[in-house]
Amino acid sequence: MARGVIYLLVGVLAVRIAFSDGGGQQADRGGALADIAHKPFGDVLLWLLGIALVGMALWRLSEAVIGQPGKDGDKPTKRLAAAGRAVFYGFVSYSVLAYAAGEKGSGSGATDKRTDDVTAKVLGWPGGQWILAIAGIGVACAGAWIAARALMRKFHKHLKMAEMSRRQRQVVDVLGMFGGASRGVLFATAGGFAVAAAVQHKPGKSKGMDDTLRSFADTPAGPWLLVLIAVGLIAFGLFSWANARWRDV
């Protein structure tokens, strides 16, 4: 549920930006948290969101320790992937809770500046260009993998499809395919920018989520491609809620 809230808000912020109504907000996690903070009972909602994301991290950690559901849930690769997700959601939950506690400059801030800082630091290391290029290729490949699995509806094996009605299955399929593909395209594009930063040795070429989303508006399709990806992220947020209801855990 918490992951769905983040993606829904990022998607909504991106739609606003596409129509020049972003109000200076960032279409990333920091922008989503700022948006929540300005709502009634915003502080309470931030604490609830942070605690829920702790639950996400602990769930992934449990999968790393005792394995995932299914006949191949004990495979080392699946355990390692679950451990990586646990670390990721651990960081996300910490950044949200830090933001809720008043540390507005915490890890929940604008992703673009953090990306530039990290990229510049990596490029300063011996072999930094190679490290950044390999990382960028890894992110781009992960994005392509996410999109491909979504389009092939691989998420079916993780959901209790038999408990859904025919209409519910149709809706979940549309949300999962469209949302997953959009999320994958976003990751793949961000990875491509990281590779460009490595090749050109320019930290500014690497982009966080906000700048990556804005880059879609600079294509010949104009803001409509950004709108398409943004609506896809909203769809992924709704798909996350479907996972909360029907996920086989």
TrEMBL record:
Q: Which residues form the DUF1206 domain?
A: 2-66, 82-153, 178-247
Species: Actinacidiphila alni
Which InterPro entries does the UniProt entry name for this protein? DUF1206
Superkingdom is Bacteria
This protein is called DUF1206 domain-containing protein
Membrane-spanning parts:
44-61, 82-101, 130-151, 172-201, 221-242
- Please verify whether the record's keywords include Membrane: yes
* Record keywords: Membrane, Transmembrane, Transmembrane helix
